[in-house]
Structure formats: C-alpha cells, structure tokens
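Q: You know discrete backbone vocabularies at least as well as I do. I have my own habits and do not want them to colour yours. No explanation is needed for now; the record alone will do.
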Amino acid sequence: MKRLLAIMRQNALITAMVVGCLGYELFTRVEVLAPMGDSMGPLMIDWLPIGLFLLLYFTFCKIKISELRPRTWHFVIQIVRTLLAAFMVLMIYLFGDDPERKLVLEGMFICFICPTAAAVVVVAEKLGGSIGSLTIFTIIANVVTMVIIPTFFPLVEREANITFMMAMLMLLRNVFVVLVAPLALALLSRRFVPRFVQYVNQYKNIGFYIWCVNLAIISGVTLRNIVHSTVSGWVLWCLLITPLFVCLIQFAIGKAIGRHWNDSISAGQALGQKNTVVGLWLTLTFLNPLAAVAPGAYVLWQNLVNGWQIWYKEKHGKLIW
C-alpha cells in the first residue's frame, strides 16, 4: 500500500486524471450512484473557480516581487503564438472546403490561439520555473489575445460575430478573477499578515494538490464531452490525436526559445500550457461546437506532458528537455 501511495504521489497529475475519468464512469454507469453523481456534478463545477483562486493565492504567497517584470522572451513567444494561429487560419482557407477537414483544422486552431493557463505557475514552480515571470507573461498573453481573437475568428468563421470590445471584456474578467485578484490578495497578505504567509509557505505543495483536485474534475468533464460528442469515425480520432502534436510542438518551441534566455522551463510552460476553458467557450460560441473536442483533449495531453516532466524532475533532479 505504501508503495502504491508513493507511486500515486510521484505521478499526481496522471493519478488525478485517472481518478476523474473513473469517477465520471462510476457515477454515471452505476445505477445506484447515478443520483449522487447528478447532484454532486454541478457542485464540483462550481468548485473549479474557487479551487483555482485558492491555488493561485497560495502560490503567489511565494512570489518574488523582483520577478514581476517583462522579459524579452515574453514578447517573442507571443509573436510565435500569433504566427502559429495565423498559419492555421491559412490552412483553413486553403484546405477548409471539406466540412470534416475544416472541423479538425478549427480544433487545431483553437489549441494554438488559446491564452496561457493561469494555473501554469503551479506546475512551473514544481519544475523550477519562475512564478513571477509567468505571472507577467500570462497578463501579456491575455492582452495579445484580446487583439488576435477578433482579428482571426471572422477569417475562420465568417459568421463569428466577435468584436474587440467583446473579447476585451471576456478576457479582462478572466484575468481579474483568476489572476489579478489572488495576486493582489497575496501581496497584501505578505505586507499585513506576514506570519500567516510564513505558515502557508511551510506547505510547499498545497497549491499543487488543489490543482490535482481541479484536474480530476476537469478530466471527468472532458471525458463527458468526448462521450457525448456527436462526431464519429476518423474525425473524432483526429480531434483527439491532433491536439497531442499541437501540444508537443508548442512545448518544444517554447523550450527552444527559452534556452536563449536561460529560462526554458518557464518559456516551455508559457507556450505549451493552455487555458482550454477559454478555448472551449470560444469554440462553442463562435466556431463549430463539434470542434470543442480538441481543446478538451488538449487538457489531457498537456497534463500528461506536465506529469512526465514532474516525474522526471523528481527522479533526476533536472529536466534535459
């Protein structure tokens, strides 16, 4: 039993995904448990923003104020991200005449254009990245997203009625609730209740384990979306598999860029770890809703990559990739 618990702890992200998927299957397919699943499911969904706020607050309590400044690679990554999204727009223009092929390309497009996940700081901290640097990067990423979403979306779907103001309000709300508010509260806590912050910082992995709880819920929701998807055949498989290649490409490019500034871990996470909640909302609202399978699958792939990185870091002491 101790050996099993140790393996689960070393592979916490993968364990969380397995628990989430098994939990969904258990509480939907076992007739006795189905009513409990129906009542608990909405409560778990409501927990997600609360859990995200708490894990970011606990993580930001460890932040170094000197790291809260833009870096050159922040802007290089944004240029690369914009070019990748623009390339997918071109692919859709050239090869999107077939509806099924266009659906797969739209799925890849949304995985490229998504902003960086706010929870990126939690995984980056485990890997030895910079919390402060990624916090500033995430703010920059959302500002850039305000511009590129209303620019690119009408080119992908002519009926996508999205304006700069709409994108700005949506992303500003997202940034304030899940990033600025916990950061401000953490900085105020450091100033006025330093003893509490010292106490919290004794528990180094508290934010990470809250993220594991959130990931388990997200994995269950993702599996539900895949199971209930009306897409079938090769299209479904493409929507599930192509995000893996998109994920690996973005992590690899991010790390390659980061090496030039001796910050490959932070840069890799910055480009590779996506806010797929925003991606799902954008897909369901402005693109073909069937393409929402792709950002859902991306959640699983990016956390498999994160889980492997954390396992490798703990076993060997450093990452070689």
Q: What stands out?
A: The chain has a mean pLDDT of 89. The chain is about 80% helix and 0% strand.
